[in-house]
Amino acid sequence: MKTVLVLGASGGVGGEVARQMVDAGWTVKALKRGMAQASEQRGGMLWLNGDALNAADVAHAAQGCSVIVHAVNPPGYRNWGKLVLPMVDNTIAAARRTGALVVLPGTVYNYGPDAFPSVTEQSPQHPATRKGAIRVQMEQRLREYTQQGGRVLVVRAGDFFGPQVGNSWFAQGLLKPGQPVASVSNPGDAGVGHQWAYLPDVARTMLALIDRRNELEPFAAFHMGGHWDADGTAMLTAIQRVVVRHGGKEPAIRALPWWLLKIASPFVATLRELLEMRYLWCQPVRMDNARLVATLGYEPHTPLDEAVEATLQGLGCLPHAPLAALAHA
What we know:
This is NAD(P)H-binding protein. By secondary structure, this protein is α/β, with parallel strands linked by helices. The chain has helices spanning 12-23, 55-61, 80-98, 130-146, 169-174, 199-211, 234-245, 258-264, 269-276, 290-296, 304-314, and strands at residues 3-7, 27-32, 39-42, 45-49, 67-70, 101-106, 118-119, 151-156, 159-161, 183-186, 194-198, 219-223, 227-229, 252-255, 286-287. It has a domain at 3-164 and 195-229 and 283-302: NAD(P)-binding Rossmann-like Domain (Rossmann fold), CATH 3.40.50.720. The model is unreliable at 322-329 (pLDDT under 50).
């Protein structure tokens, strides 16, 4: 029964989870739109032509799977309100047929200021944004599924970064992929802490919990500690150190021009979505990983400089580093 369907395997967290599951001996299926043929073996995975918005495609791909990883999102944050909930409904329907565990990469978007600054799995979910409200609805539908006999695992983490990070603050807000790092943008207010999550660590955490899936309650939610940047400077200075170690000039650190994003946001969907998340850069928000550590005994954790170096290499920002395609789910 070590067969898994990964929805969003061409994206950041989905791709990392899929690759690690291949390495761990799982048979991995992946769904992708617009393939020239019905199926194709690539990267140790079976790629199937299909769309996460098509219930029949998802149900067909999920046949024989004991786990479905729901890591699919609309590309470029576009059309969240219309696309996200139908996709999770299709995953639930497929899991109901096969009895598969549904695994959801979660975020801090579910929570609002009443839960800050330290957020646990039991904190109230009163989101401050439209995208956060949709996230809460996703989890509510998954929770209702568990009340009907299903099983769900949710792993919530901070802002993603990694070699193939896709849509992220790191790749879209801090620097420009495919170019040497001349400067780094700082989105945060002075002295405000921020939580980051290195994608390979997130995937390792998910795999460790999946291995213990029979020991978990029907709706199991865990928070990762990831990399806590206590004053908002640790990530920026780590980027500086890595660039200098690779022979580059130390990048300047400049405040992100939020005013410019506001002016351009009516014309660029991605900027509108980034702007909506500004509140997370104005106050410290930290997820408590005590429950995860109590369950696993540890949390996978790559040292910050090592994680930043791999990320910059993957994004083509270091000398002789090929640009990894910024694939989207």
